[in-house]
Amino acid sequence: MLKTLRDQFVHLKWILWFVVFLFVFFIFVDWGTGRSGRSRGLAGLAARIGNVSISESQFMKEMRSTEQRYRQMYGDQFEGVRDKIDLASITIQNIVDRYLLLAEARKLGVEVTDKELLDKIMTYPAFKRTDGSFVGDDLYARILRANQTSPEEFEDSLRQDLAMQKLQQALAAGIMIPESDVESEYRRRNEAASFDVLYVPVDRALAGVTATEADAKAYYDANQPHFTHPAQRQLRYLLVDDVRLRRTLSVPDSQIADYYSKHQQEFAAPEQVRARHILIQPKTKDDAGWSAALAKAREVRAKATAGDFAALAKQYSEDPGSKDSGGELQWFPRGRMVKEFENAAFGLKPGEVSAPVKSQYGYHIIQLEERRPATTNPLAEVRDVIREKLVESLSDAEGNRRATALRDKIDAAKLTTDDQWHTLTDDVVTSNVTPFFGAQDEMIAGLGRDPELLTEAKVSKEGFVAGPRRSSRGWVVYRVAKVRPAGTTPLTEAKDEAMDAAKRAKALEKLRAELDSRRPALASGPLAGQAAGLGGTAQTLTDHRRGTAIQGLGMAPRLDDAVFSTAVGALTPAVIVGERGVAIAKITAKKAFDPAAYAKEKIALRDSMVKEELQRLISSMVAEAKRENPITINSEVVERFKPKSG
């Protein structure tokens, strides 16, 4: 019995700690904290956070837990990547971040009562008798000792988990997402348009445009916000580029075959069918409307059993997504269609036509065309997929290792200039500089959205170095290259910039007017055939979503507005795209806003938006806590357990 309880508890304990680890690690970890304070005055300690000491024994215990979590994540691949993962740095920073988060929870009055703790303990089957009562203090302590912990340590960690959960709940309760924001986000995720777009860069019109000093002054006066800026920073950063790094990594065929043999379920293809259908919708939602729809569906079904099903679908079906293709639905597995439709389709034999099937959309007449049995994709077909998966898992650990090595070189040699940082580049590592950004910005060009980095950078002086940290493009080490105080750049200093901007604005307006004047000709034929004559390029976009970048154009909100407000088959007005050029588009298809689908999904969408905002809020909170609490890490302890390879 004790062994059974022990096994249950081990499993539950690791699940609990793994969940906590993922929450803290992916949101809060900051790889650069505390490097300035080396090991003086830290004998027997792994770190000091404010006036709180973290002992080496605490560090070692957490290190063992961290390694176990990584073993679970990587499975049989762990030994192959063990020397590429800096578990020591991950562990110490996880400890620091967790402590700071709990300290913030205490400041906000978050407490865990003894009853809440007891209720949580009683959720573990290992601590309950068959009648649901507590196993007793003696057996409770023995179970915990068997798992190398004590009641005090276990309950303290459990209190921490509960405190973090309560903190999240309290913060989430104060986050309000307006209905308009939810609808906008739903539209962004679900509305789509297909169109051909003709783009002419502004350079094509610049040669024929001049700007005077008066134009420059007029532009400067009319665009003061452009020349007025808050306190801003500019970062220089070294990027261990994910894409370049993955090109250098290889996975032996034997490892791919081993992964395939141990993960067969990943490559199982479920049973699928290919069908056509005819949808008859009720004209009204009352009983009379449904009865009329059923009568019509029976009439059409009678014709379908003896006639051309595809032709009948084109004639009678009220499903706009499949009507023009003769009701064709392509291959689909179970779980893709509504239950009533799925049950009927999978119950048919090839060539058979169903009786009318009622769903929330109306009555369906279904013809099964083919059936494909469940199977497992052969290794030859999924070899590249497995290779990519394994390379991805290796690249994150390898990127972290390389970025850590870069930071160590920068610290050891005191590299402080752009030229010195550039010497650290290679085929994988690039040296980059961001545009100036301010504290009000929500993202940094090139580095993406990172509230913690923004909070750290806005209070840092020139020369401050931090990292490694994860970005959307790879691991980075960065330095505050320049600090520009708030102010307005005077015209005397901004004259050349204002002159160039005035000239560009005139060229853009001239180009926009020219394209608008050609609308009849552009509407009469394919845009691709007319692009070269206008000095531009054309491309076709399929299922473009609002707010996503367009190749060669980038983010184009004005073009998005024009596209989504123009009817299928029509031409948008000519639109200025940023300060880069002018575009005009011909709409070929649209996936419009569906009020009914939105009504069903908006609650779940709002919840996901609250979670995203919660993550940003907590991330900023922890970043501020790091700024207020001096953190010193005993590098001698951490480096003792650094990876030995590379």
How would you describe this protein?
- This protein is of the alpha+beta class and 646 residues long.
- It has four domains: 2-175 and 615-639, Triger factor/SurA peptide-binding fold (Orthogonal Bundle); 192-228 and 490-592, no CATH class; 237-251 and 386-485, no CATH class; 271-373, Chitinase A, domain 3, CATH 3.10.50.
- Helices cover 50% and strands 18% of the residues.
- The chain contains 25 helices and 20 strands.
- Strands 5, 12, 13, 14 and 15 form a five-stranded antiparallel sheet that branches. Strands 17-3-19-18 form a four-stranded antiparallel sheet. Strands 8-7-10-9 form a four-stranded antiparallel sheet, with helices on both faces.
- Helix 4 (87-107) packs across helix 24 (595-628) and helix 19 (451-458) packs parallel to helix 24.
- It is globular, with a radius of gyration of 31 Å.
- The relative contact order is 0.17.
- The model is unreliable at 1-39 (pLDDT under 50).
